[in-house]
């Protein structure tokens, strides 16, 4: 179920950001509607906006961003809305930024195989147990 986005005016937005404060990394974490599909969406001037795009547009006094434009985060924190952490990019710039910071799962020293992969659901214990079960099946079959 889609929750209506948080409705904002510029003054209200500035008040919210002031109250949020910065964390140790200097990030201002947008926590309005956190955990919902619309967590970073706000209603501004009768348009649904992503908070980082809205903050970037307001800071740079831009009225419209093309659809190909990405608002990238130098801090790599998607919920950060600190204008100092946001920069304009496109798909290529965003991918280069990700690769330069080794934030992908396929290159650099972070490349891992097997159970050390972050998207693996199997553990060493589970794999050992499955191998023992398979070994028992084979011995009963003989």
Textual characterization of the structure:
This protein has a three-stranded mixed β-sheet. It has two domains: 6-111, no CATH class; 112-142, no CATH class. 34% of the residues lie in helices and 13% in strands. It has four helices and five strands. The model has no long low-confidence stretch (mean pLDDT 76).
- Residue stretches low in confidence (pLDDT < 50, at least 5 long) are none
- The helix/strand series, from N terminus to C terminus, equals EHEEHEEHH
Main sheet characteristics: 3 strands, mixed
Please tell me the total number of domains.
2
Proportion in helices = 25-40%
Distance between the termini: 55 Å
**Coarse morphology:** elongated
Q: Spatial order of the strands in the main sheet?
A: 1-2-3
Approximately what portion of the residues adopt beta-strand conformation? Answer: 5-15%
State mean pLDDT (0 to 100 scale). Answer: 76
Class based on secondary structure composition and strand pairing: alpha+beta
> In DSSP terms, counting alpha (H) and pi (I) runs of 4 or more, how many helices?
4
Radius of gyration: 22 Å
